[in-house]
Design the sequence.
């Protein structure tokens, strides 16, 4: 984003971040735009569903590494998932905190629920992880 500048009465330039805006992605099409909280919700979804290092179009900082957790001990997976989700989402400057992790184990699937605190408010997220 390119910041917009505004001048104060004493001539000091203040940078203002542009409003968060992105294309709206649907399973079968890209149509319209999303702003602010909706754009952030889509960004969180994309970050958590893009395997890190897998796609050359994304930088190595984008996404989350989950494939290496397949077959690991469930106790290890729980600890690692919390760390990796936090690290992944905190790379977005709009997100200030990832907290209140809750885990539900269903055999070889783990459901993770957590709260994302952002400049647009709180967002409750659930992610399914196979291990």
Sequence:
């Amino acid at each position: 984003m390119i910041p917009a500048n505004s001048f104060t009465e004493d001539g000091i330039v203040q940078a203002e971040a542009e409003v968060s805006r992105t294309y709206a992605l649907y399973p079968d099409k890209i149509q319209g735009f999303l702003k602010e909280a909706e754009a952030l919700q889509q960004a969180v979804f994309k970050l958590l569903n893009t395997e890190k290092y897998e796609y050359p179009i994304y930088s190595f900082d984008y996404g989350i590494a989950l494939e290496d957790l397949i077959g690991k001990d469930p106790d290890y997976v729980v600890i690692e998932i919390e760390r990796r989700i936090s690290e992944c989402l905190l790379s977005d400057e709009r997100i200030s905190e990832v907290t209140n992790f809750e885990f539900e184990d269903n055999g070889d699937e783990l459901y993770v629920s957590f709260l994302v605190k952002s400049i647009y408010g709180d967002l409750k997220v659930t992610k399914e992880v196979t291990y």
Notes: Residues 4-130 form a domain with the Nuclear Transport Factor 2; Chain: A, fold (CATH 3.10.450.40). The two ends are 37 Å apart (CA to CA). The mean pLDDT is 88. The chain is about 20% helix and 40% strand.
